[in-house]
Amino acid sequence: MSQVNRLPKGGRVDRSQPLTFTFNGENYQGFAGDTLAAALLANGVDIVGRSFKYSRPRGIVAAGAEEPNAVLQIGSTESAQVPNVRATQQALYAGLVASSTNGWPNVKNDVMGILGKVGGGMMPPGFYYKTFMYPQNLWLTYEKYIRKAAGLGRAPLEVDPDIYDHLNQHCDVLVIGAGPAGLAAALVAGRSGARVILADEQEEFGGSLLDTRETLDGKPATEWVAKVIAELEKMPEVTLLPRATVNGYHDHNFLTIHQRLTDHLGEIAPRGQARHRVHRVRAKRVVLAAGAHERPLVYSNNDLPGNMLAGAVSTYVNRYGVAPGRQLVLSTNNDYAYRVVLDWLDAGQQVVAVADARSNPRGAWVEEARARGVRVLTGSAVVEARGNKRVSGARICAIDLKNHKVTSSGELVECDLIVSSGGYSPVVHLASHLGGKPTWREDILAFIPGEGFQKRHCAGAVNGVFGLGDVLADGFEAGAKAAAGAGCKVVEGSMPKTEKRKEEAAVALFQVPHEKSTSRAPKQFVDLQNDVTSAGIELATREGFESVEHVKRYTALGFGTDQGKLGNINGLAIAAKSMGISIAEMGTTMFRPNYTPVTFGAVAGRHCGPLFEPKRYTAMHRWHLEQGAEFEDVGQWKRPWYFPKRGEDMHAAVARECKAVRDSVGILDASTLGKIDIQGPDAREFLNRVYTNAWTKLDVGKARYGLMCKEDGMVFDDGVTACVGENHFIMTTTTGGAARVMEWLEIYHQTEWPELKVYFTSVTDHWATMTLSGPNSRKLLAEVTDIDLDKDAFPFMTWKEGLVGGVPARVFRISFTGELSYEVNVQADYALGVWEKIVEAGKKYNLTPYGTETMHVLRAEKGFIIIGQDTDGSVTPDDLNMGWCVGRNKPFSWIGWRGMNREDCLREDRKQLVGLKPIDPNKVLPEGAQLVFDPKQSIPMKMVGHVTSSYMSSTMGYSFAMAVVKGGLKRIGERVFAPLTDGSVIEAEICSSVFYDPKGDRQHV
Amino acid sequence: MSNVNVYKQRPDAARAESPLFHAGLDELARKGKSSAGVILREKKLLGHLVIRGDAKDPAFSGGVHSALGLELPVALTLVAKGDTSLQWLGPDEWLLIVPSGQEFEIEQRLRKALDGQHISVVNVSGGQTIVELSGTNARDVLMKSTTYDVHPSNFPVGKAVGSTFAKAGAVIRHTGEDTWELLIRRSFSDYIWLWLQDASAEYGLAVKA
Amino acid sequence: MLHIFCPHCGELRSEEEFHAKGQAHIPRPLEPNACTDEEWGDYIFFRDNPRGIHHELWVHAAGCRKYFNATRHTVSYEILETYRIGEKPTVTEATVGEKKATTAGVTA
Q: Which residues contact A882 (CB under 8 A, 6 or more apart)?
């Protein structure tokens, strides 16, 4: 339980609040304010995982989002499991349970480790592809074990108890990163009156100022941070988002921020509170102040636990009061890295040596280190780390940068911590999400954001500005520009005073030379998370992968959750060197959202469970529920599918419902049909142009069925339209087609024929529709209406107005079942009452509610099509044998007419809609079954059509189907065959698609 | 006027169920929480008429004014007088909301005032309802629900916009400092009711009759 | 997520409120029956796919329900103008070269 690496004092942790936690089954203690990584280091935990491919032991390297190794599984219970959590970004809380993601059966004894250690050539890049891909069917077997052994984290098997949500934000200025540049920018923008959002991924605002040695206005920098935050907090239009990673930069300054609201409190959010929130931000201006990541140097065995980034060690010492070792060796090429030496000495630890690749470094911190007795070896570098499961020594040699050679036999020094710094890589990820190419600057040896289309301003380290004074000035300037760009009157900020310090330039060093060739030297890791080595990259270029994107895919450099944070630039430099080109010529790979992993919960937000997508209900839905209806999804609508009685299965229920309609009367909720009110003197002409048939002579009081085609002549919707006034029509559409048809009418009216005087208004939700169908429907309706239902007064395909159940109604005498039918339409607010009155009155007629399945069977018996089931966007009215519905002599060339007269549409051997009667009347053809003329032909058979609708008809006593068959209309009486997947074949006779009451006597009574 | 069918669709006396009747809002209102960040009320069973016409034609705007006593509102605005409000929906489309039962008489009055013009008036009363959200967190709930910027600097009182709402659509009307109205379609009302309960859970939701 | 200025509502709205309807300025032939199959096929099926300036038809589906045109740069996705049906674009491939479009906006 003892925190062996905790310094006696210092850090921003609260030592009065000890917290216990568990890692890989063992209990440890840390303090409030620790990250999990800081607490693990405080407890001397060296190994946090095994590497992905070679299964080498790995320790914590970094202190932020760039951490490649400490990617852990969190959660004490199954439902709370979260994979891929960076220990460096997870605040410690009491009772935290974490375990290594990689390493099976455990991190200390690893079966894969054997594979990794035996010879460097054992697993070159492409190994999985080359070895395991053949024979192909075995890959599935290999994959299971490889994935298990490599470990990629796992999703919980139980339902996540937490809630997540999304918030749509709009602001003048979004500031990304709350380090010195970001704070300065936010301050200026806020003072200028802008709506500001300041987002930072860390637990606290301040960024590098939280662990710097430098002062502002002569005081610790953290005091300035606290002052700025206090001022920002008072501004009503400033929103501060800590623990909020800006993960995606999308078009037109739309950015997504993943905020972890409660992850620092515990593994499950307090009741009622969202655990994560995604802010969907539209920003007039963006200030990108994402900072820079320190680059490690690439030397042999640089992945052994005890190899860390120089700056990360400063962070652990200054911010958390943790010294992850005793004897430190620094290998670097720049001045700024020396601060770790000073921090380490201040913490009372031993600095063994500094290896500086430069020949004569004389910067202020370098001299300060020398003055404090630190041994600085110039023109040198750590070429190799030594140790078993932890660094125990470093081999430092003189190197020749120009010729990439080791020039001395060097010396082996004893140490337990090697820190390296190869310079600083601006975090260009967000600036590149929209395709902006970063620009290489040789003077600072870094890529900075290139030109972008976005309204953004980069500030601070991301912009290649590193000195604290310059960073602050850059931040103030960017904040002012952004506020001005968003239309605010700028109020300047006041710069705090910074220290002046002599700093010298870095030299280019990425891969440190070794006495042996890259492929023979002990492994030099470039991308620790994906186990990519310098030798692997050289191999890739040797094998001809010259484009940076190809190198990436061949080696996995910068893949997955890592997104190239640590390894990218080193990898590019090595590839460039190997190919003899410059880094600028090499360029970077594409950076894609998300910057760091986002939980699925956060992606889904509130759109899950019953809110996954809208469910639409009719006014009579409650009644359907009370009757125990089963429901079918039709678009977003929930429609009653069938109404089973106790003990009935679907088949029995549908047979009963069908019989009731054919023998007496049934009632259907048809409210979901699309309804469009059309008014205007040109309404009739408009109908003539969008429907295939003629509307000129439809009198007021009548209704007509119509087909709609696209310009290509293919049917896309149908329905009945009634003329309710000379200039007034009510159009019905299919349930699924309602919105589509409305847009269709509008697009033609608004873009092609604006001169036609007509208006369209959707009344789908206003009218509720109930269909009474069956020979007793007239008698039943007569009991609840004052409308004269006499067959001459109210004939087929006409409509009337009157009271139904005491409510004003429009009643249409139309039929989709082939029976005498009435569609009663009332204002939806009154529909349930009317429905209940009809049901009450219908008892003596055995009025039976029926659902969509019965409706489908009954209409199919009559050969009536359903759009989207019997049509698929490739059938013309003639293909459907519905030529009677085509106005061939209409003066205007209506939509579809030209298209259906293309040569191809006139072929006689097109697939045409016909009826099929299985020879075995008990066999029901599966819908979608492919049809052939000759079942004995060899495979692949020549397919001549398919079944579109198929049912068992209890009315007729046999199975039947509708199908499209090549030249089917001329093949009535011939046989087709449906060879099924189980090897059986169903034989059927081609017949008319109208099976029941072909003369239509029943609907005309 | 005889060219169109103007039909009194609302019965004088009959049981009515508003789009949110199944939620039992009256019952919830009685149980009511005392302090809640969001207060919800259905303004139900009102008369809703969609009016179409040519805004550039003074005869149209004049006719509307003479029939309603309201100026034709310009883009993204709402004008109101007493219980009657008139809202811009599109360049040739407005929504008139009147007390329940008045829609038939007012449609006739409008048609008379606009006689001879190419216009359209459609009763959509049964197809939509208004949900009023008020309270200190009403705006937060809106931010979770719509991509439209509901900050008062962009969305002052008197503004009304059609936008997306969760995965459905809604017309959002800003009627008072902390008061907003959502005009929603009947068939989506259950979804939006569920959504609002969920989105306002962290602030507390109270229902007002 | 584009930010699109609706010329009827007079303000910028988020892409969710709109539906894209393909290339703009493709008038329906006035005499379809006089078109050859090839001409008709061109009208129905063939569209431009330029790298650069593209005139598109959009509808403000969740807003005012009106169709309008937008001139969009297919590389930068920048929307250079929106204009009503019946109006002509002011920004075209002829008036704006690739260069101007790619340097529009503020850069760091």
A: A707, A865
ipTM, two decimals, is 0.98
Q: What is the per-residue pLDDT across A773-813, written as a single tens digit (0 to 9) for each?
A: 999 999 999 999 999 999 999 999 999 999 999 999 999 99
DSSP A892: S
Q: List pLDDT tens digits, range A159-191.
A: 999 999 999 999 999 999 999 999 999 999 999
**Residue contact A431–C108, C-beta within 8 A:** yes
CA closest to B119 among chain A residues: A680
The answer to whether the Cβ–Cβ distance between C59 and A746 falls below 8 Å is yes
Place of tokens 């919800």: B40
CA-based angle C58:C59:C64, to the nearest 5? 145
What is the rounded distance in angstroms from the CA atom of residue A572 to the CA atom of residue A557? Answer: 9
Which one of C28, C40, C106 has the shortest CB-CB distance to A455?
C106
Q: In the numeric block, which tokens belong to residue B60? A: 């149209």
pTM of this structure: 0.93
Instruction: Choose the CATH number for C3-102 among 3.40.720.10, 3.40.630.30, 3.30.930.10, 3.30.2270.10.
Output: 3.30.2270.10
Q: Give me the sign of the Cα torsion angle A767, A770, A775, A779.
A: negative
CATH code given to domain A14-123 = 3.10.20.440
The DSSP letter of residue B195 is: H
Q: What is the spatial distance between Cα A288 and Cα A428, in angstroms, rounded to a whole number?
A: 9
Task: Give the nearest chain A residue to B17 (CA atoms).
Answer: A829
> Which residue range is the domain that position B187 belongs to?
22-207
C59, C64, C67, C87: best to mutate for the B interface, most B CBs within 10 A: C64
Q: Is A646 exposed, middle or buried (0-12, 13-18, 19+ CB in 10 A)?
A: exposed
Euclidean distance between CA atoms A798 and B196, whole angstroms? 43
| Partners of residue C14 in chain A, C-beta under 8 Å | 254, 282
- The domain A908-1005 having CATH identifier 2.40.30.110: the answer here is yes
Please list, in sequence order, all residues whose beta carbon lies within 8 angstroms of the beta carbon of residue A404, skipping any fewer than 6 positions away.
A511, A513, A577
Do the chains contact at A828 and B199, CB–CB below 8 Å? no
Contact criterion met (CB < 8 Å) for A617 and B190: yes
| A711 contacts C108? CB cut-off 8 A | no
Please tell me the predicted confidence (pLDDT) of residue A1. 47
Intrachain domains A163-292+427-485 and A296-422 with the same fold:
yes
Q: CA A70, CA A60: separation in Å to the nearest integer? A: 6
CATH topology of domain A163-292+427-485: FAD/NAD(P)-binding domain (3.50.50)
pLDDT digits over A254-276, tens only?
Answer: 999 999 999 999 999 998 889 99
What is the CB neighbour count within 10 angstroms for residue C15?
18
Please tell me if residue A754 touches chain C, with a CB cutoff of 8 Å.
Answer: yes
Residue A5: phi and psi, rounded to 5, are -100, 10
